[in-house]
Amino acid sequence: MLRLMVMFLALLAGAKVWTQDTLFRAGAEEALVAAYRERAIAACQKLPAKRTDAMTPAVPPANWAKPHSVRMKTGTRSVDVYFWQVDSPLWNARYRNPYLVLSSEGDAPPVACEFDILFGTAALVRI
Fold it and tell me: How far is the C-alpha of 89 from the C-alpha of 67, rounded, in Å?
């Protein structure tokens, strides 16, 4: 009986930690999106139409003033750093820094604008 009670308390403790973490992350994401949305839109609107590679036509400038969705993500895949290279100066950019991702509707090649919150820069990325 005691073993069952200990397992139940451990399960409750785990549920509490998971709930607190989930609520914190959701609140932090909502606050970051609200605080940096306008800056991200302004930075993305300054981006010129650009070729994604030599074989595709130039991507027309999207209407970033009314993005389809804005979400926060941690790290970017555009930096080539492996997880175990913790001494690399780009490690934080790859795995730790916050980014806002703006996606627009109806792009022929699906692209998004990735806004780096720490440096205030924007870049087009493929979805």
Answer: 32
pLDDT band at residue 55, thresholds of 50, 70 and 90? very low
Higher pLDDT, 61 or 101: 101
Q: How crowded is the C-beta side of 125, counted as CA atoms within 13 Å?
A: 17
**Residue 89: strand, helix, or coil:** coil
Contacts of 32-36 with CB under 8 Å at 24 or more apart are 32/72, 32/98, 32/100, 32/117, 33/70, 33/71, 33/72, 33/100, 36/100, 36/115, 36/117
How wide is the angle at C-alpha 67 spanned by C-alphas 122 and 41, nearest 5°? 35
Give strand ranges (E) for 1-127.
50-51, 58-59, 69-74, 98-103, 111-116, 121-126
**DSSP 8-class letter at 85:** -
What radius of gyration, in Å, describes the C-alpha atoms of the chain? 20
122 within 8 A of 50, measured Cβ to Cβ: no
Give the confidence band of 96 by pLDDT, cuts at 50, 70, 90: confident
What's the predicted TM-score (pTM) here? 0.74
